[in-house]
Amino acid sequence: MTATTRTDAHDRSPTDDLGRSARRRHGRLWISGLGLALASTVVLAVGIGAIGLSPSTVVQIIGHHTFGTPAQWSWTAPQDAIVWQVRLPRVLLGAAVGAALAVCGVALQAMVRNLLADPYLLGITSGASTGAAGAILFGFGAGLGENALSTSAFLGALAASVVVFAVARAGGRITSLRLLTAGVAVGYALYAATGFLIFASDSAEGSRSVLFWLLGSLGLARWGVPLVSVLVVVCATVAVLTLGSRHLDALAVGDETAHTLGVSPTRLRVRLLVLVSLCVGAVVAASGGIGFVGLVVPHLARRFVGAAHGRVVPVAALLGAVFLVWADVLARVSLYPRELPIGIVTAIVGAPFLLLLVRRFHAAST
Fold first, then answer.
1. Residue 364 included in any domain
2. Which of 56, 122, 224, 281 has the most CB atoms less than 10 A away?
3. Which long-range contacts (CB under 8 A, 24 or more apart) does 197-203 make?
4. Number of independent structural domains in the chain
5. Backbone φ and ψ of 273, nearest 5°
6. Where are the alpha helices (DSSP H) in 244-341?
7. Helix, strand or coil, per DSSP, at residue 30
8. CATH code, 199
9. Residue 10 falls inside a structural domain
10. Torsion-angle region of residue 145: left (phi > 0), alpha (psi -120 to 50) or beta?
11. CA-to-CA distance for 317 and 323, rounded, in angstroms?
């Protein structure tokens, strides 16, 4: 029997190797294609707006500011300001936020072993919203000037993460169930706190600003330290999750399997919680609350390249970036001259997808 088992294993290994190689090639093709799609999306999205610009003009302006070319300008000063000062920072922020929410959704779904998990689930977004509401309505962090809103939102997200961690750890080792329960409880509490701040404020304009921010907007994107910080944090998060994809695979299967593979589920969950909290805190502080990206995109990525996180993480990052940039384009132009909160656009796309997902789960369970 032993000899037969070894023979069978030996007979299967070439096929398994071919299958793995095919999946890797498939993943690389998706990553390459989505990389080209993202580059094209950036150029096209920068050119779309009240004043339309051709892709060639956009590329020339970006090339001039980035590499010092061409020597002679073939565009006007207003066009240069529109591309470089207004639209390009906004598009880059949208790509970064989309990638961040998508990969954080991947990490959270593996961490809590729940395919319906997203950054909203652990109360991180609610904490950022409470901090932002305090800054807008009551001047929290007023000494920080134009960075008061983003700083208050980031600190609110970190505070929410600390509370979730403390509550989840109070019962002993951190498990997926404790994280889910703590996140939902803290999220609802902070949602109530944000509502109280809005109700307690006498400023109708401030309440309107908070509501707009809660639904998400990239309108505050400008060149400077906040944008660069978001880009650095997002790139670092994607790199760390990609390099640690085998640990995510083990955690997604189950705690017992993770222990067998030499991975400590508790320590890994703590590290992932810290990483996701920092990343989500940074992007939500810059863009407000944008829902459904962290829920929808991971499922699309798995459908395209399978369940292995080494492929899912980069594909989800690129998909999230492309998706959110186009969602922002719709938010900018659909009701011009007014701007639609980007969270409304993502909800319009994400809500039907969620219903289809629930229906699929129901069909699979019957």
1. no
2. 122
3. 197/130, 197/133, 197/134, 197/137, 197/138, 198/133, 198/137, 200/137, 201/137, 201/138, 203/137
4. 1
5. -65, -40
6. 245-253, 255-260, 265-287, 293-305, 309-333
7. helix
8. 1.10.3470.10
9. no
10. left
11. 10
pLDDT confidence of 141, banded at 50, 70, 90? low
Segment 122-141 shows an average pLDDT of: 83
pLDDT of 183: 87
The model's pTM: 0.87
Lowest mean pLDDT among 161-175, 189-203, 284-298: 161-175
CA distances from 150 to 135, 146, 155, 183, 286 (A): 9, 8, 9, 22, 6
Q: What does the pLDDT average to over 315-334?
A: 95
Is 8 or 325 the better-scoring residue by pLDDT?
325
pLDDT in tens, 5-41: 343 444 455 555 656 777 788 888 999 999 999 999 9
pLDDT of residue 363: 63
Distance CA 119, CA 126 (A): 10
Residue 39 identity: A
CA distance 255 to 260: 9
**Position 180 in a domain:** yes
The identity of residue 170, as a single letter, is A
Q: 113-148: string of b/e by CB count within 10 Å (b at 16+)?
A: beeebbbbbbbbbbbbbbbbbbbbbeebbeeeeebb
245/257: higher pLDDT: 245
Mean pLDDT of 148-171: 83
73 found inside a domain: yes
Under 8 Å CB-to-CB from 129, ≥6 apart: which residues? 153, 156, 190, 191, 194, 213, 214, 284, 288, 289
Quickly list H helices, the chain.
Answer: 2-47, 55-67, 77-81, 88-112, 124-138, 148-170, 176-200, 204-214, 225-243, 245-253, 255-260, 265-287, 293-305, 309-333, 342-365
Please report the pLDDT score of residue 134 as a whole number.
87
DSSP secondary structure code for residue 220 in this structure: T
CA atoms of 264 and 349, how far apart (whole Å): 37
Q: To 10 degrees, the CA torsion angle through 260, 266, 270, 271? A: -20
Distance from C-alpha of 265 to C-alpha of 175, rounded to nearest angstrom: 8
